[in-house]
Amino acid sequence: MSGRNQETNFAPASAEVGKGTICFFLCQERSAFNASFSLARRLESRGYRAAYCGLPEWEDHVRAQGFRYHALPPLVDSSGPDENSELASQIWTAA
């Protein structure tokens, strides 16, 4: 082992001034959000701002942990096909 403490080397020294926002875009599953909360807390303890983006139904869960949340509109309305359905189909088949 090199003797370097991973904890002290988490962020490079150049990041000490003017730290920014880290935005989490995750699979929309409770386990994905829950697994990220300790990393988000660690980043915030080091001066970064942690924020999440996702579907509106996850906002309360994330905000209850004390993090910012930006709700994004769904690409496809669950009530049925509309003008966004074609766009969503093109995005997913192009990936």
What this model shows, in words?
- The chain has a three-stranded parallel beta sheet.
- It is elongated.
- The protein has helices at residues 30-45, 59-63, 83-94; strands at residues 21-25, 49-54, 68-71.
- 35% of the residues lie in helices and 16% in strands.
- It has one domain (19-94).
Looking at this protein, list some descriptive labels:
alpha/beta; elongated; 95 residues; 3 helices; 3 strands; 16% strand
Topology:
Blueprint: E1 21-25, H1 30-45, E2 49-54, H2 59-63, E3 68-71, H3 83-94
Parallel strand pairs: 1-2, 2-3
Q: Which structural class should the secondary elements be placed in?
A: alpha/beta
Unreliable segments of 5+ consecutive residues: 1-17
Q: Mean pLDDT, rounded to whole units?
A: 75
Summarize the biggest pleated sheet.
Answer: 3 strands, parallel
Distance between the termini: 41 Å
**Principal-axes shape call:** elongated
Instruction: Give the helix level as a range of percent.
Output: 25-40%
- How many individual β-strands? 3
Task: Provide the number of structural domains.
Answer: 1
Q: Spatial order of the strands in the main sheet?
A: 1-2-3
Proportion of strand residues: 15-25%
Oligomeric state of shown chains: single chain
Number of helices: 3
Over all CA atoms, what is the radius of gyration? 18 Å
